[in-house]
Write a structure and sequence with these properties.
globular; mainly alpha; about 80% helix
Length: about 90
C-alpha cells in the first residue's frame, strides 16, 4: 500500500482521536502511539511542509518526554498531549 499525504494525515488524526484509549491501555501502548506519530509525521512533513511543523514536532517530542520515566507515567497527561497534536494537524 502506498501512503500519500492524505492517508498519512488521516492516520495521524485517527491515532490522536483515540488518545484516551491509548493512554489508558498502558505505557507501552502510549509508547507505540508516540513512535507511530513520530514516524508518520516525519513522512507527512517531508512533502506537506506544514507552516506549524516546529510546533507539531515539539508536541510529539513532549509525548516522548512523558515516557522517559515509566513510574511517573500519567495517562491523563499523555492523552491531553496527544489531543493537543490533533488540534495542530492541518
Amino acid at each position: 500500500m502506498q501512503y500519500d499525504q492524505a492517508i498519512t494525515l488521516r492516520m495521524l488524526r485517527r491515532i490522536a482521536d483515540d488518545a484516551e484509549n491509548i493512554a489508558l491501555a498502558d505505557e507501552r501502548a502510549a509508547e507505540q502511539a508516540a513512535m507511530a506519530m513520530d514516524s508518520l509525521y516525519i513522512a507527512y512533513s517531508k512533502d506537506a511542509k506544514p507552516a506549524n511543523a516546529a510546533e507539531v514536532r515539539a508536541a510529539i517530542n513532549a509525548l516522548f518526554q512523558q515516557l522517559e520515566n515509566p513510574s511517573a507515567y500519567n495517562a491523563d497527561q499523555f492523552a491531553s498531549a496527544l489531543r493537543r497534536i490533533r488540534t495542530l494537524l492541518q
